Amino acid sequence: MSSSIVVNEVRRGVYFDSVALMRMSRTIAGGDGVIECGMMMGTPANRRIMEDAGVLADGGRGAANGDLVIAVSAHTQAAADAALAAARALLDAPKAQKSGGAAYTPRTIRAAVAADPAANLALISVPGVFAAAEARKALNRGLNVMMFSDNVPIAEEVALKQFAREQGLLMMGPDCGTAIINGTALGFANVVPRGDIGIIGASGTGIQEVSCLIANNGGGISHAIGTGGRDLKAEVGGITTLMAIDLLDGDPGTRHIVIISKPPAPDVARAVLARVANSVKPYTICFIGGTDEPMPSNAKMVATLEAAAGHALKQTLEREAVTKTGGAAGKFMRGLFAGGTLCAEAQVVLASAGLACASNVPIPGSLPLSASLPGHTLIDLGDDEYTQGRPHPMIEPAVREAPLLAALAEPGVGVVLIDVVLGYGAHADPAGHIVSVLARAQQPHPLVITSVTGTAGDPQGLTQQQAKLRAAGVVVAPSNAAAVRLAIQHISP
Amino acid sequence: MSSSIVVNEVRRGVYFDSVALMRMSRTIAGGDGVIECGMMMGTPANRRIMEDAGVLADGGRGAANGDLVIAVSAHTQAAADAALAAARALLDAPKAQKSGGAAYTPRTIRAAVAADPAANLALISVPGVFAAAEARKALNRGLNVMMFSDNVPIAEEVALKQFAREQGLLMMGPDCGTAIINGTALGFANVVPRGDIGIIGASGTGIQEVSCLIANNGGGISHAIGTGGRDLKAEVGGITTLMAIDLLDGDPGTRHIVIISKPPAPDVARAVLARVANSVKPYTICFIGGTDEPMPSNAKMVATLEAAAGHALKQTLEREAVTKTGGAAGKFMRGLFAGGTLCAEAQVVLASAGLACASNVPIPGSLPLSASLPGHTLIDLGDDEYTQGRPHPMIEPAVREAPLLAALAEPGVGVVLIDVVLGYGAHADPAGHIVSVLARAQQPHPLVITSVTGTAGDPQGLTQQQAKLRAAGVVVAPSNAAAVRLAIQHISP
Questions:
Q1: Which of B151, B154, B341, B476 to mutate to test the interface with A (most CBs of A within 10 A)?
Q2: Contact A345/B395, CB-based, under 8 Å?
Q3: ipTM of this complex > 0.85?
């Protein structure tokens, strides 16, 4: 084994972000003749890591918390010197070069507020030992705070949250990794569409997993408020969670609220659930690891993040159906399908719910169509009797126009169920056609429920067609079977 | 009510596509002073429709099946004349103007084969009365046939399919709306990724719904073979379905087969299921409306298209886990999480399966971590003990490198479970980092199962990150909870 040279350099009283430092140190470690490189703030834990890595010399051993240590081991003195020079160059490079940052970065909260007086939130990510003082400055200036920093003593957290509550300000964190406020992602957060599900989370990745599963299954997020991982501990008492419930409860854009946390202290769980019980909105409670507290009637306890997303999505779809019912009530379902097998699948779903129906293409157990029948009817408009000498309704939705207008005007009909099929061969804008028919229908008309058979790659675009239908008051389910289940719920509440 | 003028013009022995005609007729009907316009082939059914619409005069009444009728009603003679002139102009416009079509369109099968001798499939969509003759020409030239045309007598279908079978050619249809062969969409079909699920469908929209649900939930399609709606009737005997099973059974790119149909004739159902039982591949059978026949052990009967897609996806994921097990067998699970709540959720899923585990951040019921513990361990690498003075593993996946390599080399470990979190703040390519670590791991190593918390809108791209992991032999589940369930199945088969 060849000999090694260890050199250290210490910069007193400066602060660098640990991520930037780690990236720089990996660059230096990759240099010719360099064995290992550590660039870290001189905390006891970091000095121990560097000692274990064999890069610490006396210079670095004497560093303090606020000092930056540059520690290099190399095969030759020349390589060590070159590594130190390279590290200096990286550290002294203009900010933009290191981070690709903006032209002007305020260095104090005072300067940031002066630069943008309309700002109402400060994101604080300095090391834990400095974070509380910065948060207090922000709160004093009337700013809500998201504190990304961790390693803040719990007593400091309690004091900050109490002070924030007195000022009517939201204190997210410390150790708040994720928030999405008014569509703006803060910290670790994903690009999710806006919607009417609000999330309150003591956990960053909990918020991320739930918001992504909601987004990837057709839903959207109003706000996601992080509280920090200790908010539901007895010492903190859920201050931020309770304020977040107040905020989302009063937010007209939020119609369902998901709360995610590890199991709270029993007293805190009771306080949170009592506040939930006072809300008219429905809740999904995901205390990972469970709770023994009874749930209020407007809340459902789920065991996993996956189940939380599923419950919130299901409730959102059901609520959408209730909301979009324009006043036309009726107990019969009229299904008008372009897809014959979608019509058959709908009959299967009705039958499995114990409901009889009639169809021009009845499956075993369904009734044949009869003009005098007052029950549920599911019509396949693509069947030969409708398409002989005329185009198929998937190609030319105009052939569905007359039966659709008739169903929308028929007394006793509560739900009109239709399918929308995209892809090659299909009409260029089937959703647009349905929207144009609805605009000519009498008002109020029965609820219209649909699903869109298609993919993001289809020429018509799945999300674009879904959005067009939703904007016109149509409820869009994630599959044909889900659309039928929703229709059944709606006619037999 | 004002008087109306009705004028008809007939073009003998020409054929126009019904969709093109319907679009033209709607354009004409929108003209000044025009009441209604029908442009249709002169079949008895179409003449009845035009008679009912009040646009048929003696000229049109005398038209034959192969004649085109242009039928206009208008408020004035001038408007009627203008409408006829406009219809003539549309009909006589160059082909490209009507359909945006290609420069050269062969008008016969002989000419088409001459133009592209490598072609091995003919798509036939002429009217039913002409379709069988065209199909026979194609089969005689050694072409497989997809017949989009409907209204073909069942005796013709039987004769064509028997002839095709003798030639070893596939006869899809008549009334075959949808197929996807080698990634090429034919007829009504959606843009779906390629994958290892094959579909055989008597129904076009059935294939579309199942293939879209598979695509929208992370799966892909090898081929989708349409058979036509009557293939499983007693007269036809499932000729095309049985040949399609032979083809997909022998196709190395197909690992799971979904069969979709309305309830077959009992004899045909038995023949199809007997052929399924002779295959080593797993099947999902979706006879919409059910069957009383018993299922072979390699097939599962489902009631809906939605359930068919769900079953095929679940089986695909489970098979992927088996396939990607490289030879390292073990009964213990090692979870290495960047997301603390994902680690906690994993513990919940293990507990609900009755499995004990140890963690550095145990939920109630889990054990604390101990160096001597031989059971399942789930580690939160984002916990303070790992991140003090170092970046969080979501920002800098390098901190997961050493524990990941250790777990991959640990005797007795059967599954390594990891999370991948995308979004703002996260590493630019966490999947790439995992792939680079796996390339340096000892071979064979335990199965690696993951899920990617992210969306299509995230800077890293959800599908790109998933694809990178899959290509490196990692099994990618659709959620963290699903990943844990799969890991449990894998260690306790």
A1: B341
A2: no
A3: no
